[in-house]
Design brief:
The protein has 10 helices and 4 strands; from the N terminus they run E-H-H-E-E-E-H-H-H-H-H-H-H-H. It has 233 residues and is an alpha/beta fold. The chain folds into 2 domains: 94 residues, no CATH class; 106 residues, no CATH class. The chain has a 4-stranded mixed beta sheet. The longest helix is centred in the middle third of the chain and has 27 residues. It is globular, with a radius of gyration of 18 Å. 34% of the residues are buried. The structure holds zinc ion.
Length: 233
């Protein structure tokens, strides 16, 4: 095996922050170990041909992204702050907010890991890649018996306003509210018997709910096929 392949893995690296005010937050997030523990699981699950670094960074915007040029997944500190802020009103309790943000952050990281996998494994994808990697993230979390993390991410999307303009409609992502209903649908579809509460408490309409089991089965089979050769035995 060539030496470089020994290092072909997901690797968490130190945060990149300029502003003094964000440094403590970045250090605390890095030290929380959330990226490290997800990354350890990913490395047990996937064989990848490249080293991909994962880090918290100051971005000047609330975002997360994969860069194929830098082989790097960046989670912006501003995104975590934005998630916290969006929950303030509905969840005055800091502990509850932290739990939702942790679940949503896990989903966001897996979404970006999806972009990385599509790129380095040259996976064929039709339709919007953004929707496809939302499916990947959801599938991994559901199979890891962490559907509550999917729902935490969904909740953040529900609370995010969609601008009613062409730039939003023309964007590469589905609307926030659509991403919410997709995620709720897929959790429901993965185990409808134990998720009946998603119909009323989480507002999943009956007409969509009827399709969710077959939607989930199709995406599970599709991703298992796409990643079959890259999953460790
Ligand atoms: Zn994306």
């Amino acid at each position: 095996m060539p030496f470089s392949n020994l290092h072909a893995n997901f690797v968490v690296v130190a945060p990149r922050v300029e502003q003094a005010a964000l440094k403590a937050d970045a250090r605390a997030l890095h030290a929380s170990g959330i990226l490290q523990s997800i990354t350890a699981e990913l490395n047990e699950l996937f064989v990848i041909p490249e080293r991909i670094e994962i880090l918290f960074a100051e971005c000047g915007e609330a975002n997360a992204f994969f860069s194929s040029d830098d082989a790097e997944i960046t989670i912006c500190i501003e995104l975590i702050e934005d998630m916290q802020d969006s929950l303030l009103e509905s969840y005055p309790d800091q502990k509850e907010r932290d739990a939702i943000v942790e679940g949503a952050l896990t989903g966001t990281l897996l979404h970006e890991v999806g972009h990385a996998l599509v790129s380095v494994l040259e996976l064929p994808i039709t339709g919007r890649e953004e929707d496809a990697v939302d499916q990947l993230s959801t599938w991994i979390l559901i199979e890891a018996e962490m559907p509550e993390s999917v729902l935490s991410g969904a909740e953040i999307y529900y609370l995010a306003e969609d601008s009613q303009d062409d730039e939003t409609y023309a964007g590469e992502h589905s609307l926030n509210r659509q991403r919410y209903f997709n995620m709720v649908c897929w959790v429901y579809g993965s185990d409808s018997e134990n998720n009946q509460h998603l119909l009323d408490e989480w507002k999943l309409p009956e007409a969509r709910a009827e399709q969710c089991e077959s939607e989930y089965e199709l995406m599970r089979n599709s991703w298992a096929t796409l990643l079959g050769d890259h999953i460790r035995d």
